[in-house]
Q: What sequence folds into this?
């Protein structure tokens, strides 16, 4: 009988968006193997349970400290996961990386992360500016009147923002799946954020994530995209926006130079849940 591989892992979460971290400096899993691994361990009743896998790997760009490979629960590779990036930076700190800030390579580009020594303190992720802003997207689906408007933005991955008056009354999975597969968004599809404006600096957001194909308790790039869309549409009036999600609160900051957005930051929790091993 062939001996099975024993894999060490760390379970982490950022505002309830949860991940299985593997140190790929030692395992050298390929993308295909990471995809197979995600489908094996991410199911919540048959596996460990997570929204995806974070592979911690050596840097690919000079000046970076490490790189992140993010794989969704369905095995597909994601270009960026902002909550995952904050968790992976905290993991890096625990393995002995002492630089401040930490510099990370991702498939959406380089980013920096400020990780306090206090493990209870929030972790701040700095990313580049957004792109591909498309206001007033006309979906093929004749969506319900409860959705007042739909907008598109790229914040490391694809997002649509659907503004509603009461996010808690939205059937997130039903509408999210319908919009995520809409022909206008093909072939990549998009994460679907249902956004309620609470005040001039506060939002409530629920997100249906592609790759997970379900509602997640939080989405970092979704918080960024939602805050930016609300700011572009003058629904919020400040470059600092608090985003309330099902699993917790994330803060979004917009930095400008000469009137243009130069970079974004995302502040929020990044917690270690447990460590262990599994056979594969």
A:
């Amino acid at each position: 009988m062939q001996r099975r591989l024993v894999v060490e892992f760390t379970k982490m979460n950022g505002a309830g968006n949860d991940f299985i971290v593997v140190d790929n400096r030692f395992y050298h899993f390929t993308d295909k193997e990471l995809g197979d691994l995600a489908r094996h361990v991410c199911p919540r009743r048959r596996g460990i349970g997570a929204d995806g896998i974070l592979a911690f790997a050596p840097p690919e760009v000079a000046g970076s400290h490490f790189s992140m490979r993010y794989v969704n629960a369905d095995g597909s590779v994601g270009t960026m996961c902002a909550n995952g990036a904050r968790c992976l930076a905290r993991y890096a700190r625990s393995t002995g990386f002492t630089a401040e800030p930490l510099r990370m390579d991702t498939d959406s580009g380089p980013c920096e992360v400020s990780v306090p020594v206090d493990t209870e303190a929030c972790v701040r992720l700095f990313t580049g500016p957004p792109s591909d802003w498309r206001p007033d997207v006309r979906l093929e689906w004749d969506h319900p009147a409860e959705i007042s408007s739909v907008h598109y933005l790229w914040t490391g991955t694809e997002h649509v923002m659907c503004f509603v008056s009461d996010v808690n009354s939205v059937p997130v999975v039903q509408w999210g799946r319908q919009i995520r597969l809409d022909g206008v968004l093909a072939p990549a599809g998009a994460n679907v954020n249902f956004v309620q404006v609470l005040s001039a600096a506060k939002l409530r957001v629920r997100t249906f994530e592609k790759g997970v194909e379900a509602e997640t308790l939080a989405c970092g790039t979704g918080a960024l995209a939602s805050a930016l869309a609300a700011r572009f549409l003058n629904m919020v009036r400040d470059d600092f926006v608090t985003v309330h999600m099902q699993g917790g609160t994330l803060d979004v900051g917009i930095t400008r130079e000469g009137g243009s957005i130069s970079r974004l930051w995302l502040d929020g929790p990044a917690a270690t849940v447990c460590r262990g091993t599994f056979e594969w």
Notes: The mean pLDDT is 97. The chain has five helices and 18 strands. The two ends are 14 Å apart (CA to CA). The first strand starts at residue 6 and ends at 14.
